[in-house]
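As a warm-up, study this chain.
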Amino acid sequence: MAVKSAVRTKVKLDPERIIAAGLELAARPGVSAISVRELGTMLGADPTAIYRHFRSKDDLMRSLLDHILGSALAEVDADAAWDDRLRQLTARTIDWFVRYPAIGVEAVVLTTHGPGELGAIELMLDAFTEAGLDEDQIVDHYALMASHNLSGATGVARARGETPAADADEGAWLDEALIVDPRKYPKIAKFAVQLGELRDIDLLLRGVEMIIESAKRTAASRPD
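Now compare it with the structure written out below.
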């Protein structure tokens, strides 16, 4: 035991190495949460050593989340039209959250205040400014889109993290078919097939289109 302890003390950790290990852990199939203990094992270090670089588990998760937010942002074409930038941001955010579901699920409870998150906020505010909205409308549309993207992408990430790999491409919005008494729930019975065909990513992307169309209509209705 003494030998193992001596070896561990020689492991040199830094924030970059810990983040890299956290990403590797989060990408493993079936991993729905980051364990500091398991992270320490991966790094060959005492798990408590991680807290010399991150104040808490939440601090670590903020850094991991901001990393994938920044990675999604980096894949957006800065020269694209304002509406295409918004579409790309949503699509890339989904991609990165699905790639690292144990990190993506944290987006609805953690605010990072890091460059990834701040860059995404700046992109959305700039896009809605370019759309021609006034200041209040810019903020309203930004808040709507940010909430829609984060909650939707988090839901997709959670579903993918809990679904076996063989079924991961299904993406059904409902966990199972709604089987109801048509006399009591006639509308559910009527639309049961269509409800069963809904897919989470499609709904998320369609929601973005609605927000973009709202911005265009609002800008067009502004007095000259």
